[in-house]
């Protein structure tokens, strides 16, 4: 077996290999930069917001409460509304004023789809101002 140690007189021989070491170094530096910069890009900065100077909305003297009980019965004020008669009951309660806000309450066990069905009935009846009522976190048992 013979090995040639002398390659001749070529001082500037062409190399047919790609040196990927600088490319890998650049990729690693970019990876480190993005690993450091990515958590800083999230909005997790505490900010003291200024107080609003808008006047609070006046509460209605007689609010219209629509409640959906756990058995999916609908109660307007204190009276149970039979299925299909929500529009007429609301018109009677609000005296036909569809601009009046309806406060919608629902039991925890009511399915989201059932609540949306009641909201769709409200929208179909022309009552678009709907306020969802919930307990304040400090009041919750």
Structural description of this entry:
This protein has 141 residues and is α/β, with parallel strands linked by helices. It has three helices and five strands. The chain has helices at residues 21-40, 86-94, 112-124, and strands spanning 64-68, 74-76, 79-81, 102-106, 130-132. A five-stranded mixed beta sheet has the order 3-2-1-4-5, with helices on one face. A hairpin with a 2-residue loop joins strand 2 and strand 3 (79-81). It is rod-shaped. The relative contact order is 0.11. The mean pLDDT is 79.
Give helix % range.
Answer: 25-40%
Q: What is the number of beta strands?
A: 5
Strand order of the largest sheet: 3-2-1-4-5
- Tell me the overall shape: rod-shaped
Q: In angstroms, what separates the terminal alpha carbons?
A: 90 Å
Order of helices and strands: HEEEHEHE
Percent strand equals 5-15%
Radius of gyration, CA atoms, in whole angstroms: 35 Å
Please, how many helices?
3
The main β sheet shows up as: 5 strands, mixed
Mean pLDDT: 79
Residue runs with pLDDT of under 50 for 5 or more positions: none
What is the subunit organization of this protein? single chain
The SS-based structural class is: alpha/beta
């Amino acid at each position: 077996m013979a090995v040639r140690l002398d390659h001749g007189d070529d001082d500037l021989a062409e190399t047919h290999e790609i040196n990927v070491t600088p490319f890998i170094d650049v990729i690693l530096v970019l990876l480190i930069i993005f690993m450091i910069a990515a958590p800083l890009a999230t909005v997790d900065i505490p900010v003291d917001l200024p107080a609003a100077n808008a006047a609070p909305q006046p509460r209605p003297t007689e609010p219209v409460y629509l409640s959906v009980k756990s058995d999916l019965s609908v109660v307007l004020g204190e009276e149970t509304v039979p299925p299909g008669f929500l529009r007429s009951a609301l018109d009677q309660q609000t005296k036909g004023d569809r601009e009046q806000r309806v406060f919608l309450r629902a039991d925890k066990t009511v399915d989201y789809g059932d609540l949306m069905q009641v909201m769709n009935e409200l929208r179909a009846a022309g009552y678009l101002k709907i306020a969802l009522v919930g307990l304040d976190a400090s009041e919750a048992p």
